[in-house]
Please model this.
Amino acid sequence: MEKQTQNTTAHIVFMGEIRFPYGLAAVQRLTLMAKAFIHEGCRVTVICRKGSWNQDEHKDFDYKGNFEGIDYIYTSKDVHRPNSFLGRNVQKIKGIIGEIKYLRELKKHDRIDLAIVPNREVKHALRYLLFSYFYKIPTATNFVEMASSMEHRTGFLQRINDRLIDNWVLKQYNGALPISDRLMNHYHKESPSKPTLKLPILCDFEKFNIPKGNQEEPYFLYCGSIRYKEVFNFIIESYKSLNVDEHTKLYMIVSGGSKKETAQLEDEINKSFTTQPIKLYTNIPYEKLVYLYTNAIALLIPLRPTIQDTSRFPHKIGEYLASGNPVITTAVGEIMNYFEDGKTALVADNYDVASFAQKMRYVIDNPEKSVEIGLNGKELGLREFDYRAHGKRMLDFLNTL
Model:
């Protein structure tokens, strides 16, 4: 690494994520946080230790460069996931060694004012904390979920990891950026003397300023992980109770499965209908995702009254709002802090099929009012969740560290 001239501009480093900049919610949040800092005149570097894309994905993406003003590097020097078991493990080792070397050189020749890391795996968190201790770099955790409440994380070692993350590792950071009141309160309980900044969902609303298409059939849209079968089935049952499959469809964008698995699941679901009203998508380009959001009659995101859902604030809610279409959700967690039923969203009082379906029915029966609710929701989103609105707050938080 060439020696750099000492820069007086604040420099923020993000560590611990992979798949930058084309990953899912965690990477999108990182990217928007980085752009918020850049909006305030800061410099940002994203450090990924290993590649994880398949060999046929993003073939021309270099291991080091700049994306939308954000400097980045893959310290394994490869953005793709090796096919062999040996190759993958060699890449992991190269990535960790390269990460340490790069951070050391960066600290030696430049400046690092803040390191932001995810609160996910103990072994990686401790590595970053040790580095920050030796080089006297303040650290903050991007605190977006209560790991120990995640229902799909059931392995014995995984549960131990999550308990340590939530109740011990969390205390080692200099500060935190919790996404919800529940996480804010948890951090204050564990580290009462350390600074926090509640940082809600972020969105780049400009990416959704596209004209609507000539959609032949109206449809509801749900976007989520196939792992959450309970929510997945909840959406289907809510839609089924409407008996509108002849004229209003249900599109579902699901992550976590292959295209073949998704196609098989689509066939299985549609067996319970006389028509084929449900369409499943997976691994679609971002432009297609934006198009589907923008042309839906409503966007669905039911939250459950669980620790997991009251702690989180799903990234896709920001993108839903940016589409200008009405969001249908439930009165859980952060929803209660921002949305008003019938004005900025359609909020079911309870997490049950009847209550949620009633809000879906409202959209069908009141199309003009639903459009108004969607536009009001977008205005709310621009005020509260556009990334540019949070850069100054984030910079002030950095200065408290």
